[in-house]
Amino acid sequence: MKKPLFVLAPMANVTDSAFRAMFAKYGKPDVTWTEFVSADGLCSPKGKQMLMRDLAFTPKERPIVAQLFTGHPEAMKKAAKMVAKLGFDGIDINMGCPDRSVEKQGGGAAMIKDPKSALAVLEAARQGGIPVTIKTRIGYNAVDWKWLRLLLEQNLPVLTVHLRTRKEMSDVPAHWELMSEIVKLRDEVQKEVAPENRTLIIGNGDVHSLVDGDKKIREFGCDGVMIGRGIFGKPWFFNRMVKDKTPEERLKIMLEHAKLFAKTFNGKKKGSHKNFAVMKKHFKAYVSGWDGAKELRVQLMEVENVKQVEKIVKEYLAANF
Ligand SMILES: Cc1cc2nc3c(=O)[nH]c(=O)nc-3n(C[C@H](O)[C@H](O)[C@H](O)COP(=O)(O)O)c2cc1C
């Protein structure tokens, strides 16, 4: 792939298939990640029916990586085979999520404390037969160079590093100052490997624009950046031709997103349901930055369905533009 890479972060209940389709239309990232999906859940018939909703994608989103979590190699092996069959371009193992319920199952950030289990789960994921990447944090309670070194020894095609510890959650600025050290460690660990075949390192944390990403890549030497919260309310984020959208354009795109969400998740298809309230965090992000945005936001926080959104947006557009 061309470097540097600008990729869409996995975000549970944010980067669902409807939102990803909006990115595919308005500004495609170089690689798209799905929300995290429980490999254990995929192995139970009831869980599978529900989770297949989170693994639905369209060819326009490619290349697309399915993110899985589990502490159980057997579950990972089965899930990896399923994901490969669905046509994904890769599997990413979540080794950084601080969610207690994920950690309790031995997945997410808990893997940082249990490298043996992490390697067993990696080995199992590779049985799916498609490329396997890892997303992790810089450590659990403190920066853990042993952990990062171990991951860099695994010949991964890509390692995404969220530059905070598990303990720091998202409460402190990401430690970008560590990135050059991580790249140096990669080059030392993989000195026998040709530079073009070494693990690509993607930095994550607090990147708020493409220009900011360019700057961080230049300054710290990573191969790309992954953007999470910076993309809220901006499906055009990855489009270099677009600087920003006018309030009118933002509202039209928001309505299109809400309609797509309702069509995808509020129809009759079994196992596809998602509460429409999920859209409210998107409304907050789309509707901001102009006089009168707050009043409109307040109205949108009360809606229960897409018809109400359409009415509010159409009336607002007619009155203001
Ligand atoms: C609402 C939300 C959901 C998230 N869900 C996931 C997830 O499913 N898998 C994952 O690896 N990280 C998840 N993350 C973490 C992000 O991928 C990313 O690592 C983090 O937000 C830091 O990047 P940022 O500063 O660009 O947001 C989530 C973050 C947020 C805010």
Task: Offer a few descriptive terms.
globular; binds flavin mononucleotide; about 325 residues; single chain; alpha/beta
In brief:
With 321 residues, this protein is an alpha/beta fold.
Written description of the protein model:
The chain has 321 residues and is an alpha/beta fold. It contains 13 helices and eight strands. It has helices at 17-26, 39-42, 45-51, 73-85, 100-104, 115-126, 145-152, 179-189, 210-220, 247-265, 279-286, 293-300, 306-320, and strands at 5-8, 31-38, 64-69, 90-95, 132-139, 158-165, 200-204, 224-227. Strand 3, helix 4 and strand 4 (90-95) form a beta-alpha-beta unit. The chain is globular.
Write the layout of secondary structure elements.
Layout: E1 5-8, H1 17-26, E2 31-38, H2 39-42, H3 45-51, E3 64-69, H4 73-85, E4 90-95, H5 100-104, H6 115-126, E5 132-139, H7 145-152, E6 158-165, H8 179-189, E7 200-204, H9 210-220, E8 224-227, H10 247-265, H11 279-286, H12 293-300, H13 306-320
Parallel strand pairs: 1-2, 1-8, 2-3, 3-4, 4-5, 5-6, 6-7, 7-8
Helix pairs in contact: 1-10, 4-6, 10-11, 10-13
Bound molecules: flavin mononucleotide.
